[in-house]
Every structure is written in structure tokens, then in C-alpha cells.
Amino acid sequence: MGNFKLTTVEEFEAATNRLLETGAKVGADAWQLRVKNQTPHCKFGEQGVCCRICSMGPCRITPKAPRGICGCDVHGIVARNYLKFTAGGSATHSDHGREICHTLYCSSPDGAYKVKDPEKLMKIAKEWGVETEGKDIYDLAHEVAVLGLEEYGKVFGTQRFLKRAPKHTQEIWEREEIAPRAIDREVSCSLHMTHMGCSSLPEALIRQSLRSGLSDGWGGSMAGTEFSDVLFGTPKPIDTEANLGVMEVENVNIVVHGHDPSLSEMICEYADDPEMIAYAKSKGAKGITVSGVCCTSNEVAMRRGIPMAGNFLQQENVVLTGACEAIVVDVQCIFPALGPLSKCFHTKFITTSPIAQMPDSEFIRFNAETAAENAKAIVKAAIDNFENRKPDLVYIPDMKQKATVGYSLEAIVKTLDGVTNSQVDELGTTKPLIECITSGVIRGAVAMVGCNNPKIRPDSAHIELMKKLIANDVIIVASGCSAQAAAKAGLMDKQAKDLCGAGLKRVCELADIPPVLHMGSCVDISRMMNLVAELAKDSGLNISQLPVVGCAPEWMSEKAVSIGNYVVATGIDTYLGVDPYVSGSDKVAELLTSGIRDWVEAAYTVEKDIDKLGDAMMARIEEKRAALGI
Ligand code: XCC
Ligand code: SF4
């Protein structure tokens, strides 16, 4: 197996510690230090039993005070908090999707944004019943973009993309009254329900949590993914690298961070511009390196092979290298800490969105209409900053791994064609994958998703679980910061096949894939929804019967809870390594981990012991196989 070796969490931590030493020299703060000041956390908050939605409170529930001033009990308070948390996530993902629809609306043949995948646009247009015959592709793009935008406020009916789900799933959503209507309506309705004096019945609040989640996964996020593909191309397998070592000491380093590819795509475009490269050289650099953090990094890695500097809890590290000329952010998961931190170095912290404005940043407003000039100004500002580097503060850990990324649903279907040598003659379907699963060569699949969280040693849960699963012939699809954890460790290197069980290893060799498939950013979990929908349709099974589970072992954001809700509501059991602030109510905990199974054929498992979490997932996969007699 040559000299392939995974990067261990210990090696990773040693590099981080070395960077923190640089930080200490310049008086920089870091999350590792702030965690100390914030722990132990507030018990009421942790259990979800604090309510401050009206000014008679705040009320917190204890054995001596079992009800708030209005009389709400602990179950109502915990469930209300859970729904609010979900709605925050649905709003965030969906608003990202809306921005993408708007970018599509701004596309033009000679503007900054073009239609790179007209085939996908045609497919969606047909799916939505839009006449395509003889239409100019940009007229069609604008028409479809308006329809996409209307999904947010449609007066009647439910989300258009729900039709992609198998019939059985659609029937469940109808029966349980959780088929999401207008996206904005589900978020508004959630905030209405959680207002003082509205719902305090846990069942009603959790049901709306599922519906709000579905408006994200099968609404806003799906729009985000689909229209990003139309604009920037549907990902295909592509080679890249991951971890801090992708930053290059002699180059101008621009780090893109956030979520919306409308910004990062343009930065990449202009960093590649010969005029800009010449300008960088005139300033004494060898060239320009763009790398990424968080989901926007996944977006440009999947489509352009732009290297991934790291995931969520690595964002401060990129500045601590002392070699980051600019960290350019749009929305979501951006530490406000980057402001003061960048002031300790020469780094420019450039915010670009009215939605995410922060102190100690330079605000260069980025608009779809003026994208080209905005992006150029940002790249130029980074280049101009190169000469301000303080050489004695520069240290880039020599640490990176190869990764093959870009496994959209389309790419997975194409790549797995021909893996089986038997009677499967329907290419362009998921049938070859189904055959690998039914024959037992692959036992099942796990969707590994979500963030890092200081409550868990960063990346360790992602990596340990993945290693365990692939060794047991379970194939992994990954997204978000989980995908980046895998890439940094080396699990997206094709040579990682040697860590797999015999069956999965054979599949990796035949299809020439790594055992952990990078499906994109967190809005791209909608790709996973489309994948399971196709698997169910092609196999004639219900989604809940497939030996497939979801897992977010280190999650932290509201978005992650929204995701969890739509994954479960789609019929996929979901495993969490961090508790979603519901331990204060046995009723709510019971609903989420078991009661909702009666509604949607799936539920949550929360288990903080990562080894046990892995065992539970494998046991579930085997249980589903046994039920199918395979
Ligand atoms: Fe954010 Fe999407 Fe979480 Fe990573 S995984 S920390 S939400 S960047 Ni989405
Ligand atoms: Fe207290 Fe009820 Fe007001 Fe919440 S809504 S703060 S429980 S009085």
C-alpha cells in the first residue's frame, strides 16, 4: 500500500498547538481558551428548560418550580426551544437557497454568472412543467429562477421538489400533515407557534419541527444545490488536497469561508486571472493560492478542485499561520473572533454580506449585479496586503492529504455503472449500487454530516466512526465539515481502500473511488435525499427499509438540527453525538428517539460514547438487512 498513512488527530493537535504558540506571542485569543471560560455550561440551557420568550420571565424549570409564570410545563418549554432552534436552521439554509435563485435570476450570457449546466436546467424546468421548447436558455433560467423564488412564498400547495420522493414517503408527509408549504411560511408558522401563549403541546411542536426541517431539505436546500449546479456546474470527481498545508508560503493566500458559492466562485475566477497573477508577482509573491474553510470550501473543491484548508474549528488556525493575506467570508459559521484575531496579524478579514456583518472587519459589499468588480477588488486587496506579512510569525504546518471529491448524485450513478458484472443492464440508475448492497458486498451506507464542536475532540468522532464503518464494509457519503474531517485525515484518498473490509475494498477498486464519497456542502445533503429517493424507487423498497442511516457526531448549529429533522422525516434513522438541549423533558426526548417513528418510520439516537454510536449504527444496518432477508 505504498506509503499511505492517515493523518492522526494527535498529529493534527500538535500542529494546532504550535499555531497557538504563535497566537500567544501576539496576544491572540482562540476558541480553546474561550471554552475554558464558558465551562461548565449553564445547566438550564443545556437541558433546554429555560424560557425567555416573554418578559414575565425568564423562567427556568426546577423540581421546586415545575411551571413557568404562564403555567407552561417543562415539556412545552423544551419542545418550544427545539422548534425555535429548528426554525433558525431552516431559515438559514433556505435563505442561502434564495440567494442562489436570485443569482440564477441575474445570470446572463455575458455577465459574471452564466448557466454552466443547461442540461440540469432543462431537467428541472421539465420537472416543474415549464415549456422548454425553442426557449433561449437564459430566458428559461430567469423563468425557473422566478418559480424557485416563488416557492418561498407560494400561496397554495406544497413544495415542488416533494414530488421527487417515493410515493410512500409523500403519502406519509400528507398523512402526518408535515408536507411543507411555502418555505417562509413554515419558518413563520414555527415562530408563531412558539410565541407566548401558543403551542405548548410537545407533539404539535415536534411535528412542526419536522415540517420546518422538510421545508429546508426538500425546499430551500434543494433549491440551493440544484441551482448552484445549474450556475456553476454539477460536480464530477476531481482531485484536490486538504489541511493547512495547502496554503503556500511564497504565494498570496486567500481563504474563502462561509457558504454561498456566488462569492467564492468569483474569487476563484479572479484569482486565476493572468492580470491578477501578474499583479501578485509584481508584489513579490510567486502566485495566488485560494483555499477554503467550511461549506463554501466544499462548493469550490467539488467544482474546481480548490484545496480545503480545514473545517469549522480550524478557521482560526488559517489566520494563526501568519500567511493568510485575506480571509473572505459571506454567511454562516464565521467566528466573530476572526475580527480581533486578524488584527493580531496582517490578515484582512473581509465581510461581504449584509447578513453577516462583524466588528473589526472590512466590509466589501458583494452583489450578484456587481460581482465581477467586487471580486476583483477583494483579490486586489489581498495581493496588496502580501507585503505586510510579518515573516517571523509565519508558520504553515506541513500537513495535507490527497482527496478525490465531487460525488454528486449524477457522478455516483455514473461512477458505479459497471461495478457489477451480472445482469444489471440499466445503466444510469442506482441499480448497481443496490446490487452491491443486496449481495452483501457492501453492508449499507452511512451519511456522515455536520460540524465540529469543542464538546468533542475535533474531528475525532468523524474519523473514528468512518474508520470503523468502512472496515465493516459500510460505504460513506459525507458532506459539510464531516467531509473535510475525512479529507484532512486522508479518508478521501483512493488509497484509503486499504482500510476497508474486503467487499468495500473491491468496490473501491472496481469503481476507482475512495471509500468516503464527498457529496458537497451542507445544503447538498439534499443530494443525499435525492440519492435515497432513487435507491428506494429503483429497489421498490421504502426509504425506511434501506440499510442506510445518517450521523452527525460533532454537530453544533441550528442548521444541523433542521437537517436532522428532515433526514428523520424522510425515513432515515439519525445518530447524534451531541444532545440537542432536550434532556430536560423525558417526553420530548421520548418523542424524538421513539415516538416520531410512528409518524415517519424513523427516529433519533443520541449517544455521546462514540464507539457505542458506531455499534448502534451498524446494528441498525444489520437489523434492516435481516428484515429484508438479505
Ligand atoms: Fe457550519 Fe456548513 Fe456545521 Fe460546518 S457543517 S460548521 S453548519 S460549515 Ni454544515
Ligand atoms: Fe415564563 Fe411562560 Fe413567559 Fe416562558 S412564556 S418566559 S415560561 S411566563
TrEMBL record:
Enzyme class, broadest EC rank: oxidoreductase
Organism in which the protein naturally occurs: Murimonas intestini
Pfam families assigned: Prismane (PF03063)
NCBIfam families the UniProt entry points to: CO_DH_cata
GO MF terms held by the record: 4 iron, 4 sulfur cluster binding; anaerobic carbon-monoxide dehydrogenase activity; hydroxylamine reductase activity; nickel cation binding; peroxidase activity
Chain sites annotated for binding [4Fe-4S] cluster 1: 42, 50
Keyword Metal-binding belongs to the record: yes
Protein name as annotated: Carbon monoxide dehydrogenase
UniProt cofactor(s): [4Fe-4S] cluster
Residues where [4Fe-4S] cluster 2 binds: 51, 54, 59, 70
